[in-house]
Amino acid sequence: MGDCDFHAIVCSDLDGIALPSPQRDVPLEMDKPRERWCDACRAIAATTASS
What we know:
Elements: E1 7-8, E2 16-17, H1 39-49
Antiparallel strand pairs: 1-2
């Protein structure tokens, strides 16, 4: 909705992204500076994308 302050990430029960912004689909191949997948999240995302 864009009004929350925290989005959990797949590879951790505690860590997440603390930004007030809506959730968005993130491509496996990121093209923005300083953005990247951690290895665990990328593996999970690749698995769910191919399902």
